[in-house]
């Protein structure tokens, strides 16, 4: 994308077609991108095979085709002035085919690295060596029985993760010793994996950055994340959540990771906070997502620019400004489990009215027709004048939902 030619919202081309942003994938992240793009005056096009996809339902155009369907991709390219993706498992060749016709951000090469844990960790190692100072957990790539046998003792106990297609803790096995490691690799189908040393996590955090084609890169504040059963449950972004010196290091490391990729778009990098052995905490880089991230949803209500507007700006070649957080924030993920009271078969809509009666609550539902346990149905952003006020509302909201306290 040429820096000199931003795609201005509301502009029309010679044929009268309005400025249109395309997105590969119609899940909730695509939906919130579409909402941000439409709020600014762009038309949108979504490619997703599902007739009821959350983003397809609200987009100007919904191309219902497989992600690698040549005709579908050609239609998306014909309808769109610039294209992005909302999930990392979009086939890299599809992005490359689109890129031959339209600006695509992030590019296929960056997405390919984020799709593969081994390539991703190799990139993190390069960035650490170049001065970001934040390394991944000790690890070994396992593609062959020989590599499995050669694993260093020091990596055990560890977590075996499939190199590709893992999410929400799926495609992972915790292993104590070599026998468990071999059994787990068998169970995972002997596909390429990485074995990571099990780290003494004290907390987890993530950082979202947006980078433009001109190299400008801005960082959102650092999010503190709590997972339940491998799925993000709560994100907290306020004074006292993360020690400022660690937060600054995480932001600098994330910017370095984006810059060294020549990345364009929104990128999220996840970190572990681990014991440094001297009574303090150290940072370890976990993984990255080449798109907005669940942990960045609080930006919709707590920052002057949301992560989705930042994605729109980056993709359209519009200016990126450093985001300003104007309120402490807590985000609660709303999973499908909330629709099912213990012992009840039928889904019951949760008490949104009671939640919305609490101060500073902002409900975001993704328009998914049916709730299922573990399915991401929406999130609740909580803002307020003080950290204490936000925590108090979060405590009440969690109790209303029957979820564990902060
Ligand atoms: P998602 O896509 O939802 O972020 P994922 O399936 O890609 O998840 P990871 O982020 O690699 O998986 O791991 C999921 C969670 O498991 C982490 O957030 C962390 O809580 C824990 N975990 C992963 N790797 C390690 C490790 N090496 N040591 C300790 N805990 C770990
Ligand atoms: Mg993760």
UniProtKB/TrEMBL annotation:
Reactions catalysed: 5-amino-1-(5-phospho-beta-D-ribosyl)imidazole + hydrogencarbonate + ATP = 5-carboxyamino-1-(5-phospho-D-ribosyl)imidazole + ADP + phosphate + 2 H(+)
HAMAP family documented for this protein: PurK
The family this protein is said to belong to: Belongs to the PurK/PurT family.
Stored Gene3D superfamilies: 3.40.50.20, ATP-grasp fold, A domain, ATP-grasp fold, B domain
Function in brief: Catalyzes the ATP-dependent conversion of 5-aminoimidazole ribonucleotide (AIR) and HCO(3)(-) to N5-carboxyaminoimidazole ribonucleotide (N5-CAIR). Catalyzes the ATP-dependent conversion of 5-aminoimidazole ribonucleotide (AIR) and HCO(3)- to N5-carboxyaminoimidazole ribonucleotide (N5-CAIR).
GO molecular function: 5-(carboxyamino)imidazole ribonucleotide synthase activity; ATP binding; metal ion binding; phosphoribosylaminoimidazole carboxylase activity
GO CC annotations, alphabetized: cytosol
Pfam families, per the entry: ATP-grasp, PurK_C, RS_preATP-grasp-like
One GO BP annotation of this record: 'de novo' IMP biosynthetic process
Enzyme class (EC, first level): ligase
Protein name: N5-carboxyaminoimidazole ribonucleotide synthase
Documented EC number(s): 6.3.4.18
Alphabetized NCBIfam families for the sequence: PRK06019.1-2, PRK06019.1-3, PRK06019.1-5, purK
The entry's keywords: ATP-binding, Ligase, Nucleotide-binding, Purine biosynthesis
Pathway: Purine metabolism; IMP biosynthesis via de novo pathway; 5-amino-1-(5-phospho-D-ribosyl)imidazole-4-carboxylate from 5-amino-1-(5-phospho-D-ribosyl)imidazole (N5-CAIR route): step 1/2
């Amino acid at each position: 994308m040429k820096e000199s030619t931003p795609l201005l919202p509301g502009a029309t081309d010679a044929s009268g077609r309005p400025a249109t942003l395309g997105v590969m994938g119609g899940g909730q992240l695509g939906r919130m991108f579409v909402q941000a793009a439409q709020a600014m005056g762009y038309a949108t096009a979504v490619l997703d095979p599902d007739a009821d996809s959350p983003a397809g339902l609200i987009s100007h155009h919904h191309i219902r085709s497989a992600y690698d369907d040549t005709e579908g991709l050609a239609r998306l390219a014909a309808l769109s002035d610039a294209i992005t993706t909302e999930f990392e498992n979009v086939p890299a060749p599809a992005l490359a085919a689109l890129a031959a016709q339209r600006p695509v951000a992030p590019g296929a090469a960056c997405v390919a690295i984020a799709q593969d844990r081994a390539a991703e960790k190799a990139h993190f190692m390069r960035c650490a060596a170049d001065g970001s100072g934040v390394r991944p957990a000790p690890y070994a790539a396992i593609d062959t029985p020989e590599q499995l046998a050669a694993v260093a003792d020091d990596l055990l106990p560890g977590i075996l993760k499939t190199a590709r297609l893992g999410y929400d803790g799926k495609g992972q096995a915790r292993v104590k010793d070599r026998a468990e490691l071999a059994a787990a690799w068998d169970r995972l189908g002997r596909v390429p994996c990485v074995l990571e040393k099990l780290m003494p996590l004290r907390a987890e955090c993530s950082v979202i950055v947006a980078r433009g084609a001109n190299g400008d890169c801005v960082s959102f504040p650092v999010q503190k994340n709590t997972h339940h059963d491998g799925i993000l449950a709560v994100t907290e972004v306020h004074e006292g959540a993360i020690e400022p010196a660690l937060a600054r290091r995480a932001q600098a490391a994330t910017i370095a990771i984006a810059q060294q990729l020549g990345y364009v778009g929104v990128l999220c990098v996840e970190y572990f906070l681990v014991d440094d052995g001297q009574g303090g905490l150290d940072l370890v880089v976990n993984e990255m997502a080449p798109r907005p991230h669940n942990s960045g949803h609080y930006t919709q209500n707590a920052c002057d620019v949301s992560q989705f507007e930042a994605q729109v700006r980056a993709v359209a070649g519009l200016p990126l400004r450093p985001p300003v957080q104007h309120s402490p924030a807590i985000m609660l993920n709303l999973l499908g489990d909330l629709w099912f009271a213990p012992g009840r078969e039928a889904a019951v809509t949760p008490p949104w009215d009671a939640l919305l009666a609490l101060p500073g609550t902002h409900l975001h539902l993704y328009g998914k027709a049916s709730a299922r346990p573990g399915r991401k149905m929406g999130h609740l952003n909580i803002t307020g004048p003080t950290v204490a006020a936000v925590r108090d509302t979060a405590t009440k909201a969690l109790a209303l939902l029957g979820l564990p306290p902060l």
